[in-house]
């Protein structure tokens, strides 16, 4: 994947740089460096909500290897957002530095019956991203155009 920052949506503050790419239909790739803040989290959630409505389901790849910490409010925001996506519409993969955190993410995925995967290996993460891009379906509508298929980020059972 081309990680050209000019191609990414960008959030920047003194504490945080958050980049989000949409390299293929139904694929989001993020990179966060610095502190995970509520403002950066809200930036990501807005993009992810839009992608869920547009694509119907999303494969998300978070490069958090440069994240130094996460504010409690930001953690609460991402957890609340995750609870609205507790089905198979969102599959999440993480690149992180800590093997212990990687194991915790995988355990959380098992307990929540969600498709979470994590690694500390940038090569493995890169393969995951490249595979998702290579196997992404062709768009049935122009990316960015309104979708007649979905009008809500909530699963059908909760609308």
Can you describe what's shown?
The structure is a single chain. The protein is an alpha/beta fold. It has a single domain, classed as STAS domain (Transcription Regulator spoIIAA, 2-Layer Sandwich). A 6-stranded mixed sheet has the order 1-2-3-4-5-6, sandwiched between helices. Helix 1 runs parallel beside helix 2. The longest helix has 18 residues. The radius of gyration is 15 Å and the shape is globular.
In short:
The protein is of the alpha/beta class and 159 residues long. It has a single domain (5-158), classed as STAS domain (Transcription Regulator spoIIAA, 2-Layer Sandwich), CATH 3.30.750.24. Helices cover 36% and strands 29% of the residues.
Write the SSE topology.
Blueprint: E1 9-12, E2 16-24, E3 27-36, H1 38-55, E4 58-70, H2 72-83, E5 90-95, H3 99-112, E6 116-119, H4 122-134
Parallel strand pairs: 3-4, 4-5, 5-6
Antiparallel strand pairs: 1-2, 2-3
Helix pairs in contact: 1-2
